Amino acid sequence: MQLNELRFNRLLPEEFKEDFFVFDFTENNPELRDVDVSNPEDFTNYIWRKLKENNCSFGVGRYNEDRILYRHSPLFSNVRSIHLGMDLFVASGINIFCPIDGKIHSFNNNKARGDYGPTIILEHNEGGMRFFTLYGHLNEESLAGLKEGQLIRRGEIVGCVGDSDVNGGWPPHLHFQIITEIGDKRGDFPGVSSKQDIEHNLKTCPDPNIILGLPIQV
Questions:
Q1: Tens of pLDDT along 93-118?
Q2: pLDDT of amino acid 217
Q3: What phi, psi does 177 have (nearest 5°)?
Q4: Are 59 and 20 contacting, i.e. CB atoms less than 8 angstroms apart?
Q5: Of 153, 171, 134, which is closest to residue 59 (Cα–Cα)?
Q6: CB–CB of 131/178 below 8 Å?
Q7: For residues 132 and 147, what is the distance between their CA atoms, to the nearest angstrom?
Q8: Is the C or the N end of the chain the one with fewer CB within 10 Å?
Q9: Distance of CA 24 to CAs 62, 87, 98, 142, 213, Å?
Q10: Residue 172 in contact with residue 92, Cβ under 8 Å?
């Protein structure tokens, strides 16, 4: 069985339908020249303005996109720039739901500037496959009372989206990522790749749209 043969629950609440806007965070987007992505308020205002202009309830940040967003953070050392997850831009406090039965593999508050902030990783064993899903940029309350090995059923709340004060200094959004080989990582896993390592990393972190099921190529 393959991942795309499994049945998944939606991550966002029901009111977030298919009216989404796909962002371009590459150097080919001239609008970014006028946006200070190192300033959470300026960057957030850009996100909400684009959603309003396009009458969309949420935004999508693309998988396997070579981004210019990471140049302001020493975390990426101007080397890693290719996004290994998908971003769902919604307001802080929005619930995120579990796509398929799993258990808590690990969690951590990754507090460095540009990092995930509160992060939860779930382990799934389904259809003879073992894989992991990562939920980054949550709020701190999402980590309260968690225990490794705790069961999270399909459709139950994993956590809530955090704001820029706790999520590493980004506009409110969920970073969602599939991981097939997690190694010894706990509560954290690289969400951005260098060009040198991208072939291997795309195999380790396949397209999250397998689970999200958005009707677009991203």
A1: 999 999 999 999 999 999 998 899 99
A2: 64
A3: -145, 140
A4: yes
A5: 171
A6: yes
A7: 16
A8: N
A9: 8, 12, 27, 29, 19
A10: yes
